[in-house]
Amino acid sequence: MIALPLVALLIGFLTVYWLPALPSAWSGYVAISILAGADALIGGLRARLEGRFDEAVFVTGFFANMLIAALLSYAGEKLDVDLYLAVTLALGIRIFTNLGRIRALLVAAQRRRRSSGAAGSE
Amino acid sequence: MEESPQSGGNWLLALTGVCLVLGALLGLQVKARMARGDTQMARRTNALVAMVSEARTQIENQRKEIADLRIQLSKYEKEAAAGHGLVKLSEELQNARAALGLLPMKGPGIELTLDDSVMKADETGGTSDLFVIHDFDLIGIINELWAAGAEAVSLNGQRLVNGSAITCSGRLIQVNKVTIPPPFTFEVIGNQENLMSALNIRDGALDRLRRLEFVVKLTPKDEVTVPAISIAPKFRYAKPVLEESGP
């Protein structure tokens, strides 16, 4: 069941891979969108582990983040300010924080399970 | 994992949808990057090829222009000479030009085509050097041709004149400082019988090549055209001696 998103990732990748390539001018925006999407995904996983997951928030957050990230870097380019750096930095920090939080939650869950299992056997 | 009460089982579906989109974006990006790498290489190569071929056509055009201008010049000179009774002088000039290779020449002669041996080095155990045509092979043949009374000779479109050097740089052969690839074709104007027998002489230049199964095609032709040399010789050090100097 947990393999489903991974399969979807692969399918999405392969589907687009066979399509004609995007103009290279778009490449920067696609990259920043990927970063925003990854951030939203990891944020969603964290919310799920914390028990406060909401699909509507997750899905809208995913698309909105990607769009905002791309728009910010576009605006940065127009204004001649390297705004994409700010986006990259913010998203990078968030991804790291969320991953750290997920790790802590998983470790805590594991510990709880083990102690409860030990208690049950005794 | 416990199900959070507000999301039900749909969280996996949402995750799957998001992953599909993210995968698609990743695919886009990877593809774009790879395509860009390819096209950059291809673009650079194409640009270089275009530059080389453009330069080649330019050289070719300029050569043609030189040849045309030379013929025009000769005509003007002839006309001018006819008007001033200088016909003799004009003829002399023409002959001098012909001797220098500044005029294209036409006449009966032979055509000789040579290509590398069909034998392969590994079949015979020898080195591959034995089975390709070298500068000295060509030099030997040219020497034979002059000795047999050749009046005008060209090698792959390069007129051989006084001072035409045949050199070998690596695996390439240069004539008049122009690189020529095999097959090598000589166009020779002269007495056909003399030229043929001189080339076919026993143990002569062609004999060795034929024995090693080089591709040798020697045909007499009723009309051979030999182009003019593209760059006129310049005398930087040699000066003609005009006064008769006593002993």
Describe the fold and architecture.
The complex is a heterodimer of chains A (122) and B (247). Chain A is built from 4 helices and no strands. Chain A has helices at 3-17, 27-50, 55-79, 83-121. Chain A has 122 residues and is mostly helical. Chain A has a domain at 31-114. The mean pLDDT of chain A is 85. The radius of gyration of chain A is 19 Å and the shape is globular. Helices cover 49% and strands 19% of the residues of chain B. Chain B has a 5-stranded antiparallel beta sheet with strand order 3-2-7-1-8. The radius of gyration of chain B is 32 Å and the shape is elongated. The model of chain B is unreliable at 1-7 (pLDDT under 50). Chain A binds chain B through residues 1, 4-6, 8-17, 19, 21-22, 24, 26-27, 30-31, 33-34, 37-38, 40-41, 44-45, 48, 51-55, 58-59, 62-63, 66, and chain B through 2, 4, 6-7, 10-33, 35-36.
Name a few traits of the molecule.
heterodimer; A: mainly alpha; 4 helices; B: 247 residues; alpha+beta; Alpha-Beta Plaits; 3-stranded antiparallel β-sheet; 6 helices; disordered N terminus
